[in-house]
Specification:
The chain has one helix and 17 strands. It is mainly beta.
Length: about 230
């Protein structure tokens, strides 16, 4: 009788659910800002073993929408303590579109079976599009005048990662006085890039006077942005 009681207690102990208060922050590190109105879901994940049936089974057990600070909250969510079950938080929808995701448990997404969880989800890889427009290049100008323009995607850092992510050339162009007028407007093709902060460098020698400017523009996910450069 005693053995049966012990077995019963063990079964109850290993199959009970633990209530957890969970705070999730959806964060875009490339833009250094929270993601508002993102839909975040929590999945229960079961790993299947076997030579021919390896994989995962997952089901969504809760979802919520982030606020102006990129946060959402789950109160007293019941998490199963069974062996073989794990939990993951994922961003399902952001910036007006469904996100590509899977329910695999990663270091970044794992929800642990604890009384409290506080997670920051990295969601930083979004396509964006940009076009550069040059207005009245070298008009007016004198012999020796020129303009050099360079732009590139900016690298960004993730917590506890040793190397920055991203970075790379977008456009590097040079115009020099040649005695003829350039068209009043010169535009590039639309270039595909990643959303984030994009540094712009401009060197001018205009009417013999040299000036240099460095600026940073922010391009949002899925946006098509036109950047004007004036002579």
């Amino acid at each position: 009788m005693r053995n049966i009681l012990i077995i019963f207690i063990l079964i109850v102990f290993t199959t009970c659910r633990k209530k957890s208060d969970i705070t999730i922050t959806a964060w875009n590190y490339a833009m250094a800002e929270p993601i508002t109105n993102a839909e975040v879901a929590i999945f229960e994940v079961k790993y299947k073993g076997g030579l021919f049936s390896a994989g995962t089974e997952c089901k969504e057990i809760a979802h919520a929408t982030t606020d102006a600070n990129g946060q959402c909250f789950f109160s007293n969510l019941k998490l199963n303590k069974n062996n073989g079950l794990q939990y993951a938080a994922k961003v399902k929808y952001s910036y007006g579109k469904a996100d590509f995701y899977n329910c695999n448990v990663t270091e970044n997404s794992e929800v642990k079976v604890l009384n409290k969880n506080d997670l920051t989800l990295n969601s930083s890889d979004y396509d964006a599009f940009i076009k550069f427009q040059f207005n009245n290049i070298l008009n007016p100008s004198i012999s020796g005048d020129s303009i050099w323009f360079s732009s590139k995607t900016r690298a960004y850092n993730l917590p506890e990662k040793p190397y920055p992510y991203g970075g790379g050339g977008l456009l590097n162009t040079f115009y020099k006085y040649n005695g003829n007028n350039y068209p009043s407007v010169i535009t590039t093709n639309i270039l595909k890039t990643y959303a984030g902060k994009i540094p712009i460098y401009i060197y001018k020698k205009k009417m013999g006077i040299v000036s240099q400017t460095i600026d940073t523009i922010k391009i949002y996910p899925y946006e098509t942005k036109t950047i004007e450069i004036n002579w």
